[in-house]
Amino acid sequence: MKPSLKMKPLPQAGHRYRELSQALLPRDPVQPSQTMTTDLTTSRHSLKFWTRFKQCHLFDYTPAATAMWVAVALAGAFALAWAVWQLMRNPPGDLASAAIALALVAIAALVPVQIPRTSQSVLVADVFVLTILATFGVPAAVLAAGMEALVGGLRSSKRLST
Q: I need a surface site. Which of 21, 51, 74, 119 has the fewest CB within 10 A?
C-alpha cells in the first residue's frame, strides 16, 4: 500500500487579485441621507485609505520596504515643494522659460533610446535636465528631474508605487 500524501489545494488563478478587489469594495453602503463630509475628515477614513492603498499598491512590500518607500516619497514631496517655492521667487519671464523647458523634458522623456543588445534604455531628457541646471539653476533642474522620473515611470510601469 502506498502512503497517501495530504496536500494543500493550490489557490485558484487570480486568488490574490480577488482578495484585493474584495478589500477595496465598500463594506457598508452609504445611505442617501448620510453625508460624506463627516467621514472624510475623520482619522478612521484616512486609516482606511492607507490600508487600501497598501493592499492595492504595496502588497508585496515588506514593512522595511514600505517604510523606505514612504521616506523616499516624503523626501520627493519636500524637494518638489522646495523647488516650487524657490522658482516662485524668480521674475515671470524666467518662469515662462522654465515652464517651456519642463514641457520639453516631458516630451523628451517619452522617447527612450535603446542600448543595443540589452534591455536598458537611456532618455534624451537627461541632456535637457543638465541644460536646465546650467541655465535656470538647481530648483528648475529638480523639477525637470522629477518630471523626467514621473513620465518615465508612467511609461514603463502600471504600478503607482513605481
A: 119
* Coil, helix or strand at residue 159: coil
- What is this structure's pTM? 0.63
Question: Mean pLDDT, to the nearest integer, of 72-76?
Answer: 93
Per-residue confidence (pLDDT) for residue 13, from 0 to 100:
46
54 belongs to a structural domain? yes
Report d(CA 35, CA 12) in Å as an integer.
39
**Cβ contacts of residue 55 below 8 Å, gap of 6+?**
20, 23, 24
By residue range, what is the domain housing residue 59?
49-156
Give the pLDDT confidence of 13-59 residue by residue, as tens digits.
444 445 545 554 445 544 544 445 554 455 666 678 888 888 888 88
DSSP string, 105-155: HHHHHT-EEEPTTSS-EEETHHHHHHHHHHHH-HHHHHHHHHHHHHHHHHH
Could you tell me if residue 79 is inside a domain? Answer: yes
- The answer to whether 129 and 145 are in contact (CB under 8 A) is yes
Residue 100 in contact with residue 136, Cβ under 8 Å? no
Residue 33 resides in a domain: no
More confident residue, 133 or 6: 133
- The answer to the question of residue 41 being in a domain is no
The total number of structural domains that make up the chain: 1
